[in-house]
């Protein structure tokens, strides 16, 4: 059983093999459910020319946003980019290439890539700049555009608990894009709050089977709140 143990003890080992110009798929939504330590390790490594696939690029100074500071990201494939001033500056100056993708389409691109499906049809984006240059087919009288799926050289994912075989569960809204991202990487690295022994996770609560996971590391998380809003009564 030792050969199935996927736990690593250092972030260097967790991201061993990551190099310039690779594609990295990152789980998370805003700052919720992001693999904070793995992102910090990419920053530390100084890897450049990266294509990052994620719902967004974090915020200035936290999350994936820290990878913009040294211009490590060449291209972002995202569905929302409105919380990061540096992102805006790099986009407008031509430093950063951005492929805006509808949120549901982005999730399906990851899921389809992980399932070995090379492309799919969706009505979302037809007749807009999103659909320009893409193949169109009509089903039941409605036009659909063909969207290619996405896979990455690495997928970095945050989970709540995992066992040593990589079976894991996510907690509440921190699930978000993580299950789809976990399936779509050639190498999937899981950063977790707690590592348990095999058999401790209730089988029905395993959201991502370990077959998709290559490395597991226990992290510590700041879990920063992206935007705190209080009611007038609470203020």
TrEMBL record:
Q: Which GO terms describe its molecular function?
A: transferase activity
Keyword Transferase annotated: yes
Q: Which Pfam family name is an example for this entry? A: CoA_trans
Query: Is the keyword Transmembrane helix assigned to this protein?
Result: no
InterPro entries annotated for this entry?
Answer: 3-oxoacid_CoA-transf_A, CoA_trans_fam_I, CoA_transf_BS, NagB/RpiA_transferase-like
Q: Which keywords does UniProt give here?
A: Transferase
This protein's source sits in the domain of life called Bacteria
Q: Which NCBIfam families match?
A: pcaI_scoA_fam
Instruction: Say which family it is in.
Output: Belongs to the 3-oxoacid CoA-transferase subunit A family.
Q: Can you say what this protein is called?
A: CoA transferase subunit A
Origin organism is Glaciecola petra
Organism lineage reads as: Bacteria, Pseudomonadati, Pseudomonadota, Gammaproteobacteria, Alteromonadales
């Amino acid at each position: 059983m030792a050969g199935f143990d996927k736990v690593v003890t250092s972030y260097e080992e967790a991201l061993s093999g990551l190099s310039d110009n690779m594609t990295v798929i990152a789980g998370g939504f805003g700052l919720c459910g992001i693999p904070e330590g793995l992102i910090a390790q990419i920053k530390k490594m100084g890897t450049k020319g990266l294509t990052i696939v994620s719902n967004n690029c974090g915020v200035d100074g936290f999350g994936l946003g820290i990878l913009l500071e040294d211009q490590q990201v060449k291209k972002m494939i995202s569905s929302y980019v409105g919380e990061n001033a540096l992102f805006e500056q790099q986009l407008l100056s031509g430093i950063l290439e951005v492929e805006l993708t509808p949120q549901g389409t982005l999730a399906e691109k990851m899921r389809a890539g992980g399932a070995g499906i090379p492309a799919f049809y969706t009505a979302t984006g037809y007749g807009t700049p999103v659909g320009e240059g893409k193949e169109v087919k009509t089903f039941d009288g409605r036009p659909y555009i063909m969207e290619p799926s996405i896979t990455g050289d690495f997928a970095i994912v945050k989970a709540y608990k995992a066992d040593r075989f990589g079976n894991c569960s996510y907690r509440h809204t921190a699930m978000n894009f993580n299950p789809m991202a976990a399936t779509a990487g050639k190498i999937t690295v899981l950063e977790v709050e707690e590592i348990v022994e095999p058999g401790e996770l209730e089988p029905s609560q395993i959201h991502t089977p370990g077959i998709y996971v290559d490395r597991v590391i226990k992290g510590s998380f700041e879990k920063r709140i992206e935007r705190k809003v209080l009611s007038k009564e609470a203020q």
